[in-house]
Fold this protein.
Amino acid sequence: MAEQLTGLAGDRALLGRTSTAERVSDILRSRIAEGYFPPGTRLSEDAIGGALGVSRNTLREAFRLLTHERLLVHELNRGVFVRVLTVEDVEDIYRTRALVECAVVRGLGEPPYGLDGLAAAVTGGQLAAHENDWKALGTANIHFHRELVALAGSERTDELMRSVFAELRLAFHVVDDPRRLHEPYLARNRQILQALQAGDRRGAERLLETYLTDSLERVVEVYRRRVGEDGTGAS
């Protein structure tokens, strides 16, 4: 925990003079998504509040916001913990992804599309794979799907999916072989990008549907082995 708190103290500057629970929650959300606080970690009010230089009330409000986003869970008489997802949670996340991401592609209208963000995410993934940085590849993969959702031009959809993708990262952090999990989808991201560059949104949607189905099966298979159905440990 000492190492995490040292790094977290460096985020204090992000709060500026207008420190708010929302900004604290933004910092903690990013840190959780990065695996800085892995699933199951107990978050100490005193330690984290001291590292960020914020009041207990501000931190509790930030915890409340992240609990609402299903990233944290409050356990009576024990404290606040980074949530450990169940298999059912993972399946629901993918249902939401399929509903939203496929609808975004389906509703794109006539080409050309603004694909610079998608292309940059593919390039970032290629660089991460070249450097054998599989955690960074997972991050690049999430960026690809965020950029895909951003094609809708909807702040509400972006906000919804920001929380969904943050939850998804909770599942990724318990996977014991991130290369096996993420590497196959680098080529598939490129295929979706190429279909959209060609103006073939129907083809891109078909690729995306298959992608999400296969990804769900792979993640659930690993997740059952690692944490069990209910997120309390493999049985």
